[in-house]
Amino acid sequence: MCGRFALRLGRGEIRGVPGHDGVDADEWIDEDAFVPRYNIAPRSQAPVLRRANDNNTGYTLHTMKWGLVPHWSKHEDKSLSTTNARAENLVSSGGMWASIKHKRCAVLAQGYYEWLTRGKDKLPHFTKHVDGALMLMAGLYDSVVLEGQTTPLWSFSIVTTAANKEFEWLHERQPVILSTRAALDAWLDTSSHSWTPELSKLVQPFSDPTHPLQCYQVPKEIGKVGTESPTFIEPITNRKDGIQAMFSKQTTKPKLFPPKRSRSPITIEDTPPTKKAKTAEDSDIEVLDEPPTSSKPKPTPTSSPPKSPSKRKPTKVTPPSSSHPTPFPNPPAQTKSKDAPSNTKLESFFRKV
Known about the structure:
The protein is of the alpha+beta class. The protein has helices at residues 11-15, 87-91, 181-188, 197-202, 243-251, 340-352, and strands spanning 4-7, 25-29, 37-40, 45-51, 59-66, 84-86, 104-109, 111-118, 121-129, 135-144, 153-162, 173-175, 213-217, 275-278, 284-287. Strands 3-1-8-9-13 form a five-stranded antiparallel β-sheet, with no helix packed on it. The longest helix has 13 residues, at 340-352. The protein is globular, with a radius of gyration of 50 Å.
């Protein structure tokens, strides 16, 4: 199928139908109704190329609405899916297209969009001619004056066929592409109102090695109707935020650490710098060549007088065998005793120790 296409060329350039010599439009009907866009969606206005009359003389551009509204309609049925017309239905004699398939046109485009389905993800791709020629897609058109209207509504549909082997990976359908002047003239020949075998050949899967097609992935933003950007028709690898940019960033080594702060130079002289020491009164003392010596006195064991024993009998303490004094555990709290001689003996013992 074909659900989006691009035509962002200037109107003067579109009139010349680039890439197709001798195909110049003599007239453009409702030219002002067309706005060049990169993202043309169904129900938008776009130009189609058709014959000016049944004598097959001259070409006319005509701006029409995408989504064919049949001539028997009283109201525009928005639920009717006529964005595309299947080529298989045109070859057969029946169906709604039987009275319309003799009204043939060519839809002008720089290329068309198709979405590749990968699981739950859909990746848009753009297909165009390698040489940059304007793409001419086979189409059908019709006109109708709806109820309550006084002017006719012109509308068109794009004819699709089975995708060729080169594009089956993308989608099972693709537009019928008129790549040569002979194919274009044969499709636009409406002198006969009947379907011919030659027309059946034209709607076969695309096969023209002299006018190859190019297909590449484009940004997902194209999926939103109304968005416009020239990047929509450019490979996503060429975008600044695409794969090409990613590889270019890898060539530059990232800075792992922030730059060091600049410091003022330090001059080192031959003589060592003076050191400052603080006293208890925070006064500064200069010490020149010699390091400070420790003036702390050696700790000496001190003994505190024992607490007065309680009424219990005093415990006899055996002096340590070592000549060096060792700290004793504090005796349990005792209350003063009325027995004075006991206190005197204990005090004299600790003095000897």
